[in-house]
Amino acid sequence: MLKSKTFVKKTRSGGVMKIVREHYLRDDIWCGSEVCAECKQESAVLQRDACIESNLCTYPHYLIPDTNVVLHQIDVLEDPVIRNVIILQTVLQEVRHRSAPVYKRLKDIIHEKEKHFYTFTNEHHRDTFIEREPGESANDRNDRAIRVATKWYSQHLKTSESDAEGLKVVLLTNDQGNTQKAEESSLLVYKCEEYIKSLIANPELVDRLALSSDDKNEITSSKVLFPEHLPLSRIQAGIKSGSFLQGSFRASRDNYLEATVFVQGEGEDSTEVLIQGLQNLNRAVHQDVVAVQLLPRNQWVAPSAVVLQDEGTAKDDDAEEEEEEKLQYLNDLRVPVSASKPTGKIVGIIKRSWRPYCGMLNASQIKESTRHLFTPADRRIPRIRIETRQSSTLAGQRIMVAIDGWPKHSRYPNGHFVRSLGSAGEKDTEQEVLLLEHDVPHQDFSQAVLSFLPKMPWAITPEDMVKREDLRHLTVCSVDPPGCTDIDDALHCRELDNGNLEVGVHIADVSHFIRPGNAMDKEAANRGTTVYLCGKRIDMVPELLSSNLCSLRSNVERMAFSCIWEMNDKAEILKTRFTKSVINSKASLTYAEAQMRIDDTTMNDDITQSLRGLNKLAKILKRQRIEKGALTLSSLEVRFHIDSETHDPIDLQTKELMETNSMVEEFMLLANISVAQKIYDEFPDCAMLRKHPAPPPSNYDILLKAAKSKVSIHTDSAKALADSLDGAKVDGFPYFNTLLRILATRCMMQAVYFCSGMDSDFHHYGLASPIYTHFTSPIRRYADIIVHRLLAVAIAADSTYPDLMDKHKQSALANNLNYRHKMSQYAQRASVAFHTQLFFKSRGILNEAGYVLFVRKNAIIVLIPKFGLEGTVFFDTKDKAAPNLVFDEEGPTLKVEQHNFCIFDKVKVTISLDASNIQHQKIRMALIDPVIPGVSVPAPDVEPQAKKPKLDR
Questions:
Q1: Which residues are in the RNB domain (predicted)?
Q2: pLDDT tens digits along 452-481
Q3: In total, how many domains does the chain have?
Q4: Is the pLDDT reported for residue 1 higher than 60?
């Protein structure tokens, strides 16, 4: 049956266009129930015995939730107790339109067979489709469509020739109007909360209920603590007139009374607005999109340089007094007005960016109380007030909590319990927390994804060779860190008959196995990158590809994408070509093994000769890059030696870099630059490139202040900075140059992916290259897969597809890749921090030498080179009287009693683990040397602990 609707639309040019919309209706859509004999269905989803033990519904029943129940109670719907649910097409479409995260979670539930969730396409069924009536809102029409479908199901199951006797259909809605109309139509209808509270099998499920608008005031005081948020219409008018600014809210990690709002401008014309105080923060949560109003210039302040954590209070009445005390403390440490920044207040929320948060429960001190405070692991998120009857069970557990709302009467937002993650402090639990907190997709690959893997045993076929060059005869080898199984790249170097050198970079041809648009491709695009944690790897692609078929292991045939240059002995490129190939690596070496071959004069085999040729050219390439102004920066990376049985860290050391590290890096950089130029020449509008913006001059302030007393640093250009760093040496202080380069690294901007058709600035500041991309790691980076596809089309080795040539889709993809890359880095740092805590856990107190890296108003940040560890020495601790502190912003210096601390000062500190707060365990440092009476601590005897071979099991 075909229904058509005709209407006219005015075009931009003033003409009239007739539009006909056709809607196909069918009468053969299955109901999905096992009990139904009327519908011809092979594999029914809804069970015959649909029993959920309930005091309200003592009979078998199916559930039909409306849109708002799905949107707000998705945590409840995910519980295993909830089964045999009908998701109407009307609801699915509305959820998709209103919340992408909830839509994805709902689709995942529908795909779980044991949940028995059935999608019924009511909008295309002849008996359940309804037209929108004149004057009826879209929302009211959808509510009516849900009631019509519920009524059809009730009658359909009754009239069906089956044993459906007693089986009923229950509509779940929290909408009073919808409930009333459903009852008038004799439908069985309950509020979601009413139904969930009736369940006998799982009373804890009540804790997972999100608060509805009717009960949000139950756990607030009557006193108004925050200004009212302006309605969206006023906000939009204010943004248009320029009286309000729209931006992303970024809470401070170190000071809960402070945040910034990042306002995106045209090009580099972006601003940051400082927000201070609970009233001005006005219930915004980290990453919300907010409307901010600038305060008068005489009320502008400077960011605080003190660390201020929310101690938390259960009494809302104390909020104002608490804030006044803390702000007085901030004002006591205030810097001159000349250092002030644009300051404002939040007047409204444009878009909430809430997600489920990991953390721990702070149980109420009131006996039998069900209301408790939850402390998130992320210090930028405020505490959340929840109701739970499981407080004794959840003590010491990491749990997840979602925010439901933040009334103006409440000091903290209200939320609900989602699930428990396990005991705090356990490695598996903490790893799950850091993956969830950094939004790293880490679930097992679905069957849909795995179905696109090649069947084993796998071998290269004659068809595969048609567009490939056979390079199996070349002496190719790979050089990687120890234990590497996902080998992306291999190299070769040989002398040609004309005396020139042929150098090849061979990269795993992942794009041969991952084809555009299939489930594996979509999953890889979403994950964006492989995440390397201490002792664990979260793969971007399934292991069969990452560690086997794509990995360029030695002595097996593998498909590759090769970039081959002809060079002279001055490393000048004479010819460049790209080809899909087949290689057979002759050796999989570690950096140390490759270095040993190069250095051992008795070895002269083909592999060693190739490595020596590569190493010689790499040194010339590096010198040329540095002459052009490329930066050689520094950051301390640590490597843990993990116990093979307990998986605990037993040793911690900074990574040593060898010539072979640099050798591999130079040829990877050269390949990336060569490929970037090629794909941009061929596809100027849709090339996936990578840029590194030049830092704004203000970023260098800390570097210039730190260096001024010892050396002169110029930051006019990358070349000027590179030359300054190369010449920055202090007699008797060999580590000074490394410290300076570490500080320079902190001044840099983040490198980002972008689409060439959407940007005009391609320059890579750090590499001093006019164009750059990522081509050399497609096993672990999705950007490289896109670059491979572009290059394959450019050399006619593969065909294109629409999304590849769509600059808007490429730009959106680049944004996701930038986000995933950033979160991956944060997750890796968090993993290192956790393993560092494990390492120090049973070692008592250690003494180590370090250097002052930053100076704060009440503390110094100290770097311990031996462990690549940073820690804070506080001088205003609660357990002893605060010393006399004088902070000089210009230095920056901190005078503690009679001693002046400057950046790069050498100090000696104690290092220990403070586990008093199980959720926020931290490395504590205390000053030993210089000796400041009343401040420094005596050096402990650490010998017995230092000899301890490994952690307690």
A1: 468-797
A2: 999 999 999 999 998 899 999 999 999 998
A3: 5
A4: no
Of 75, 74, 78, 76, give the one whose Cα is nearest residue 91.
Answer: 74
Residue 98, in any domain of the structure:
yes
Residues 6+ apart with CB under 8 A from 749: 692, 693, 694, 695, 699, 765
| Integer-rounded Cα radius of gyration of the chain | 32
DSSP bridge pairs for 399: 359, 420
Domain's final residue, options 437, 471, 493? 437
Neighbours of 219 (CB within 10 A): 18
Which residue range forms the structural domain that includes residue 910? 842-946
The residue type of 280 is: N
Residues 432 and 497 in one domain: no
Sign of the dihedral through C-alpha 938, 939, 941, 942 = positive
Position 230 confidence tier, pLDDT thresholds 50, 70, 90: very high
Question: CA quadruple 312, 318, 324, 328: dihedral positive or negative?
Answer: negative
Phi, psi angles (nearest 5°) of residue 768? 55, 45
Q: Is the pLDDT of residue 330 over 70?
A: no
pLDDT tens-digit series, residues 25-81: 887 788 889 888 778 666 788 988 888 888 888 889 999 999 999 999 999 999 989
pTM listed for this prediction: 0.82
CATH number at residue 864: 2.40.50.140
Measured CA to CA, the distance from residue 240 to residue 577 in angstroms comes to 53
- Measured CA to CA, the distance from residue 180 to residue 749 in angstroms comes to 58
Query: C-alpha angle 646/647/651, rounded to 5°?
Result: 110
Q: Is 74 exposed, middle or buried (0-12, 13-18, 19+ CB in 10 A)?
A: buried
Predicted confidence band of residue 239 (pLDDT cuts 50, 70, 90):
very high
764, part of any domain: no
Q: Which residues make beta-bridge pairs with 113?
A: none
Residues 932, 953: Cα–Cα separation, whole Å: 39
At 75 the pLDDT is 92
Joined together, the tokens standing for residue 19 give 């539009």
Mean per-residue pLDDT, 345-366: 91
Query: In this structure, are 367 and 344 located in the same domain?
Result: no
* 204 and 249 assigned to the same domain: no
Could you report the per-residue pLDDT of 10-30, keeping only the tens digit for each?
A: 666 667 666 656 667 887 788
CA angle in degrees (0–180, nearest 5) for 271-747-656:
150
Q: Tell me: do 393 and 516 sit in the same domain.
A: no
Contact 660, 595 (CB under 8 A): yes
Q: What average pLDDT score do residues 178-191 get?
A: 93
pLDDT for res 875: 85
**Stretch 781-793: mean pLDDT:** 97
Give DSSP secondary structure letters for 470-498: E-TTS--EEEE-TT--S--EEEEEEE-TT
Closest CA to 261 of 231, 295, 234: 295
Do 364 and 336 share a structural domain? Answer: no
Q: What CATH number is given to the structural domain containing 425?
A: 2.40.50.700
Asked if residues 751 and 757 have their Cβ atoms less than 8 Å apart, the reply is no
Mapping DSSP to helix (H, G, I), strand (E, B) and coil, where does residue 908 land?
strand
Residues in the chain: 953
CA terminus-to-terminus distance, the chain:
70
Instruction: Give the whole-angstrom CA distance, residue 633 versus residue 629.
Output: 12
